[in-house]
Each structure stands twice: as structure tokens, then as C-alpha cells.
Design a protein that fits this description.
This protein has 99 residues and is mainly beta. The strands form 2 sheets. Strands 2, 3, 5, 6 and 7 form a 5-stranded antiparallel beta sheet that branches. The chain has a 4-stranded mixed beta sheet with strand order 4-1-8-9, with no helix packed on it. A hairpin with a 2-residue loop joins strand 5 and strand 6. The two termini are 20 Å apart.
Length: 99
């Protein structure tokens, strides 16, 4: 089975709460600040998104090979910018990037 590994470094914004992790629109778990979580997936194309309340990352499309691991990292906006984004651009607070 293939797997997706997500690293969430410490960030002041939202550090006390876990982010929900969705793969292909299905909530499969969560990730806390300063943690790395692994999620089993089938090989093929998937869409991954993290969210906290109404603030969601832009969905990231990945292609996972058989028995491979895809590593991702959650980036969070600077706390003042994140606070403004909560109200005006909630999809810009969290971002999933290749690690």
C-alpha cells in the first residue's frame, strides 16, 4: 500500500488546534502542530486538502505510485496575515507543498 506523509511544523496561527486532513473529499484524520502523520492511500491520483473550520487549503492533486510515499508539508501564513485571511481569503491561510 502507498502512503502520504504530512509534516506540520509549528506556526503561531492555529498551533493549539488540529487540522483536518481530507483525501478525495473524505475526512481521514487530523494533524496537530509539530507532528508528522502518515495516511495510507491506494496508488493513483488523489486530491488532498487540510482545513480548520471554514479555512481550507487549496486542494492539491498528487499522483501516488504503487508502494511509494509522497511527502507533503503544511505551510501557514504569518500570524497577522493569517488573521486577515480568515475573513477575506480563507483559502490562503494553509498551503500543502511537496516536502
Amino acid at each position: 500500500m502507498s502512503e502520504v506523509t504530512i509534516l506540520r511544523p509549528w506556526s503561531y496561527f492555529g498551533f493549539a488546534r488540529a487540522l483536518k486532513v481530507s483525501i478525495d473529499g473524505v475526512n481521514i484524520g487530523s494533524i496537530s502542530s509539530k507532528k508528522t502523520e502518515k495516511f495510507g492511500v491506494t496508488s493513483g491520483s488523489h486530491t488532498i486538502q487540510v482545513s480548520m473550520d471554514w479555512c481550507k487549503s487549496v486542494p492539491l492533486s498528487i499522483n501516488v505510485s504503487e508502494n511509494a510515499t509522497v511527502s507533503l508539508k503544511v505551510e501557514t501564513q504569518f500570524v497577522l496575515l493569517a488573521t486577515l485571511c480568515c475573513f477575506f481569503r480563507p483559502s490562503k491561510i494553509f498551503k500543502l507543498v511537496g516536502n
